[in-house]
Records
---
Amino acid sequence: MKWRLIIHKQPHTAFENMGIDAALQESCTVPVVRLYTWQPPAVSIGRFQSLHDEIDEQQCKKNGVDIVRRITGGGAVFHDAEVTYSICIREKNEYFSKDLHESYQAICGAVIAGLKKFGLEPAYIPINDIIVNGKKISGCAQTRKKGIILQHGTLLVDVDVDKMFSLLKVPDEKIRDKLIASAKERVTSIHQQLGKQMSNEEVMTALVDGFKEFFNIEFEVSELTPKEKKRAAEIQKTVFEAWSYER
Amino acid sequence: MKQYMVKVPGGKLLKLKIDIDSTKIKSIQILGDFFVYPEESLFELEKALLGVQREQCLDIISSAIAQQKMTLAGFSANDLNNLIQQAFEEHT
């Protein structure tokens, strides 16, 4: 069985991206991997976070950064120079067990295999992180509905920690500089690790190869069906453009 | 609402916004960067905790987890209960 592969080289808005991922989870029959980017840049927050506590809304507005609440748990993420992946697959599948941690580890394993294509030596840190040289390069979040797993995750192509922190609220302004310095110690990107810029296309190709190799599968390149596009637009409007401020 | 927060060792950030009315929970929000499956069950748990007294909290949390087949990642029932108990402690 071939997996579906959807490569969105053209960026989408945060609301479109979240709508498409949710629509793919609903329509999933065979496993599907989608690779995508964001324009305008956006901050996504986890399902259980308080938007007002986490995000400086005025700064986001000033910088043209969208804010979206994800259907997945996890933390706040600034999506700018990154490639994002999503995968939808049945809980009961031939590649990993239903166990939450095992499924996170397996899917992160494919991302790690992709990063290794660049000569990096990444490691999985439970529950949802991938590190290189001790610094986080990828985070992910998973949800499950009607027996279908949706996991989406980031892969930092480049990172601007100062900009990231200008959009996030910190518990105490007096320690903002300290938090930024500490985040610079904890977060990295492909650019930083390789010392040269990689294009989104190169990162996407490495991820595709990582998934193929790790799960020993072949992909069939695919597009969203008209039905999926319609459903994605509906979910975008009724969920993602509606609920970000609910907590 | 008063706020209480804990970074669960080896887990995630767990935050409570809670109002206690005399001896019972009047309102509660359970917030953080953790994971709960199914997600909606967390909001059901928040509702189930309304009007609940201090001594009953752990039972209510445990039975919600069992009844709704909740999976928690990044915090445990005890972590949540401890934070609620801290709120009661500071209220009295």
---
Amino acid sequence: MNKGEKKTDLFSWSIATLLISLAGIMPAVLGASSSTQSTTGFANITKNVAIGLSSDLASGIGFINLDINTADNNATAGTTGANGNFNASSNTTFWVTINDTTNTYVDMCTKDNQSFTLAGSATTLENGNFTWQADTVGTPVLPNVTNSHAFATSYDTSNLIANNVDTGVYYMRFWLDVQDGQETGSYYTQVSIQAKENSTTCGS
Amino acid sequence: MTSKNRLLFSILRLKGLVIGLFILVLSFYSVNSGTIGVGLSYNREALKIDEFHKGCVDYGIYNPFDTDINATVEPSDPLKPYLTYKNPEVVFPEKLKGPIDKKVITLCFKPKIIRLPYFKLGIKSIFNEETPLKGFFNSTNWIFQIPFMPTTIKGTIVASQVKPEGTAGGTGATVNLGVGAPLELVIGRKIYFFMFLFSVVVIIILIVAFFKRRQLKLLYLKKTGKTEEQKREKMRQLQEQMKKMQEQQDKLQQQVEETDKKEQGENNA
């Protein structure tokens, strides 16, 4: 290729680049000068989710005066409840309710933040000993210890308190096993209950 | 049935109705009174932000239950590093009110795609927040991504009751309630970054092509054992030889012509 041919080639490329650039700009330029009238469509979709705890459940899950080497000790309302968490009809007073303002289907899950831990110490009562069960039946409302689920430190997405619901009251019970040789004292943990739109996973 | 019996029957029926109503009211009251909870109202599940830009989402907190609470919203761990402030606002939503009477909390996010250690050190030193060296290489603060592809970070925004810590008495667990809304941060990259990247790539290709061409040329000459200069010299020599040969040929031609003329003259004489 001689010098003359090279120059022609370069010129051709420059013209091509310029045309391509103009092609990109043209629609915007033409659009600005067009006389099309338009209006804006607007849609705002809002989701609401509201859940509440019974005052007994909100006051805490307590286990009072437990003996060593005992299984399935029933929880009391808070740490001062004397008669367990049962009302006059022997039904549990631990429940979670979905408020009727909820307009989307939700899953409800639970977890704890750590194993029961002795105050001011590293001694624990392992999570396998702390179990829960929820009853989706309205009444009678006594979830059974059989097939109860052990707590874990991440949301249990296999065993849900409620699955794909937008209404209802869900009754709960909690149990604690105390192994032989467990150190005496008061143990603590923190239980979380979360409701989340069922298309997504709890806690994710 | 006598009128006395009829009256007794009516009283008993009324009594049954009253007891039934009482049980109904009691059961309703037992579920709807003394309930502590929170409601979350949201209308965004994804937020697109350009890198180094701020984007915000509004969340409405309401309390349809009969107990007063303080509440807040908090992002889950994957979203936390991009929140522009550490402690979201705490609100007091009026009890027994629906989503219309919600209190709005705005959460803002600002993603920094590649946070350089010295940059982080600078910020932390200025505000004296933490030990500068702590968490420098914490992977949650870094995003490595393929150019042109937006990065998506999925998480949950949780509305919960704010309550005092701790329990009193024997062994037990405090119970926290949360209502979660999904949120995806879609982080886009600015066009000038791509232009810069594209320019860098083109320059690299040109440099590589230039050196490659020279290398190939050198390799060819090495193979043939000749340099360009040597070739030119050889050509010049050949041209000179050809010129000399031409001159000799001309000379010989001239001699032949002269000899022919001489012979012709002698013959004529």
---
Amino acid sequence: MRLVNPFSLDEDLPDRAEGGACGIVRVWEPPGAAVVLGRSNAAEREARPEVCERDGVPVLRRLGGGGAVVLGPGCLVVSLAKLVEESLVIGPYMEKAVGILAEAIHRVAGVPAEPRGTGDLCVGDRKILGSSVFRRRRVFFYQASLLVSMDLVLVDKYLRHPTREPEYRRGRPHREFLTTLRAAGCEAPMRELTAGIELEVSRRLEEIR
Amino acid sequence: MTAMVDVVVPSLGEDVSTVMLVAWLVEPGGASVEGEPLFEVETDKAVFEVEAEVTGTLAEVLAGAGAVVPPGAVVGRIRAA
């Protein structure tokens, strides 16, 4: 049995990778709702802290960049950490990770998802996965949140409209911008998706070098 | 006499024209150690930990947290040991 504190947000992984672990992948479903801010996001600008507090929803901050997200039951967090050769490179590594995830989702969930913006995966023009990266000289630490069946009402409830958005979003509110694997026709149970995506990503981890 | 060494924001790829300085990991006057994290910058989706290139004392901070700067910008100076 693997014991992981779900809201440590896998921040042990960069140290473990740097300490010699040969690449680590974790895929998990949060047991409750939480707002997770990007590293430099201001909580009051990106989220609705008063609503979160009223509902007992924690507001956390991750190591990596990007915008705020809502995690909860019905979404999957994918975290991977890997020693890499290029020290001052982000984009190509993120593109590689997103590409591997797109193929894993297609294979396991049967849903074709295309890269859009920076590190997003979309079905049509609606986003199902977003990415965040934290880099040290030798370590690439990538995290993604994948919407499987999460109630998207939660996103508008706990997050404001983001202060920065990709061009393809075109000002759409969260409920019109996001979608889920279930809405795209995936019927695979959560346990199967979790194990399948972790296996597929682990199998190809050496391609990120 | 000890040399002052510029702390420079590294280039993070052709598509990165500016970065935001997220935080200094060493206080002004604190010890900077070659190869140890000195400050962090953020691009669109990524935070990058920048290591000190020399050992010494962080003598000057020229850009604080929240500053948006281009790669190559001098954001501080280290008095080399």
